Amino acid sequence: MSTPTRVAVITGASQGIGAGLVRGYRRLGYAVVANSRSIGDTDDPLVLTVAGDISEPGVGQRIIDAALQRFGCVDTVVNNAGIFIAKPFTDYTDTDYDAITGVNMRGFFELTRAAMRVLKAGGHVVNISTSLVDQTNSQVPSALASLTKGGLNAATKALAIEYAGRGIRVNAVALGVISTPMHDPSDHAALAGLHPLGRLGEIDEAVEAVLYLEQAGLVTGEILHVDGGQSAGH
User: Fold this and answer.
1) Which residue ranges traverse the bilayer (predicted)?
2) Which of 22, 88, 111, 218 could cross-link with 60 by S-S, CB 3.0 to 4.6 Å?
3) Domains of the chain as residue ranges with CATH
C-alpha cells in the first residue's frame, strides 16, 4: 500500500455529515482516520476506522496514535462529533450537561491537544459549530449548545493565533440546520423556517464548506457560516 500524501482525522464519522466528510476527503486523495462510538470496518485500505466515545478520557490520544501507527502522520483534524439537545435551561439535567460537554468540549480538547503535538506546517483543524451561537431563537432554547459551541468558536480564534507561527491553520464551520438522520422529516418544514432562504442545508453543502477551508491556505481563525442566512438575522 502506498503512503498517502496527507491524512485527515474525522470524528462523528459513521453517518450524516461525518460520513460525507470521509467521502469528501477521500475525493481529495487524503487517507482518513474515521471515528465514532460504534463505527464499523471498511474495505478501503486508506480509511482506518477507530471506534470509541470521544468524550471518554484517553480516546482522543488513542485516535491520533492509531493514525500515526497506520499512516505515519496527521495533517488535518475535523472535530465533527457533537451533541445537540434543545431544552428550556432549567430542564437540562446533570446527565445532559455531562453528555453535551463531554462530546462537544472534552472530545475537542483531547483530540486537538493530541493532534497539535504532531501537526506540522500546513496542518489544519476544523471545528463544527452552530449558528445558534450568533443568532439565538426562543423557539429553539439551546443554552448548552451556545455554551459548548460558543467555546469552540472562541478556541478556534485563540488556536489560530497561537499556532500561526508554526504554519497551522484553525477554522470553524457554523452550521444551520442540515438535513441529516438526526432530524425527523416531519420537522423539516418548521426547521427550514429558521433559515431566511427557507430550506434546510444538505450534507454535501456542509462538506463543501469544510473542503473549501481545507484548500484555502490563507484562511485561519475564520468562523464560516453555512446556514441559509440564519446568522444574519430575520
Assistant:
1) none
2) 111
3) 7-229 (3.40.50.720)
